[in-house]
Automatic annotation (TrEMBL):
PROSITE patterns: COA_TRANSF_2. Transmembrane segments: none annotated. It comes from the Bacteria. One of its GO terms (molecular function) is transferase activity. PANTHER family: KETOACID-COENZYME A TRANSFERASE, SUCCINYL-COA:3-KETOACID COENZYME A TRANSFERASE SUBUNIT B-RELATED. InterPro entries: 3-oxoacid_CoA-transf_B, CoA_trans_fam_I, CoA_transf_AS, NagB/RpiA_transferase-like. Keywords: Transferase. NCBIfam families: pcaJ_scoB_fam (TIGR02428). This is CoA transferase subunit B. Belongs to the 3-oxoacid CoA-transferase subunit B family.
Length: 219
């Protein structure tokens, strides 16, 4: 079976470390805020000028003026700071974000990412993605492994306009956890119940499969 959106967020949350400053992109990445391990101090940063995002609000705690870069309502943790988007991008461009989690349309074996434009389709746009991929060394892409038509999104070469070149090293899809190294995807983990054969079939770019590929565990 494929991973749910929440399971993908839970798996990404395992990559968090105490003291990290983390930027979460629109879509599945925003859900990571709900799965920060208990007792861990992580400061979530948003391009619109919030450092210290908490989980999504309940109906009782919602504040329509407290939003993230994707215009979703959010909460703020103790010690949060609110500032201008100019200062927020200075933080991003200055390399002060420890981990960035982004969505994507395509990723290829050279670590290129396409995430902002599909010709003849209305897309939200670039947002802060181009700055984030340029300013961060540690980036995780979260996306479905294939399109609704069954076409692979893990390619030998991206077909869409690029957001960044050679910047992606880790990819989590609804089927697998992969790392990019030496011009290939390396299969590290697979979703529960998903076969290696299915992952091979749905990966267009070069894929290296170790002798043993463990299943992800979710309690």
């Amino acid at each position: 079976m494929t991973l749910s959106r929440d399971q993908m967020a839970m798996r990404v949350a395992r990559e968090l470390q105490d003291g990290f400053y983390v930027n979460l992109g629109i879509g599945i990445p925003t859900l990571v805020a709900n799965f920060v391990p208990e007792g861990m101090e992580v400061m979530l940063q948003s391009e619109n000028g919030l450092l210290g995002m908490g989980s999504f609000p309940t109906e009782e705690t919602i504040d329509a003026d407290m939003i993230n870069a994707g215009k979703q309502t959010v909460t703020a943790v103790a010690g949060a700071s609110i500032f201008s988007s100019a200062e927020s991008f200075a933080m991003i461009r200055g390399g002060h974000v420890d981990l960035t989690v982004l969505g994507a349309f395509e990723v290829d074996v050279q670590g290129n990412i396409a995430s902002w434009m599909i010709p003849n389709k209305l897309i939200k746009g670039m947002g802060g993605a181009m700055d984030l991929v340029a300013g961060a060394d540690n980036i995780i892409v979260t996306m479905t492994h294939a399109s609704k038509n069954g076409d692979s999104k893990l390619l030998e070469s991206c077909s869409l306009p690029l957001t960044g070149k050679g910047c992606i090293k880790k990819v989590l899809t609804d089927l697998a956890w992969l790392e990019i190294e030496d011009g290939a995807f390396i299969l590290k983990e697979r979703a529960p119940g998903v076969s290696v054969e299915e992952i091979i079939e749905k990966t267009q770019g070069k894929l290296i499969v170790p002798d043993h590929v463990p299943e992800m565990q979710f309690s």
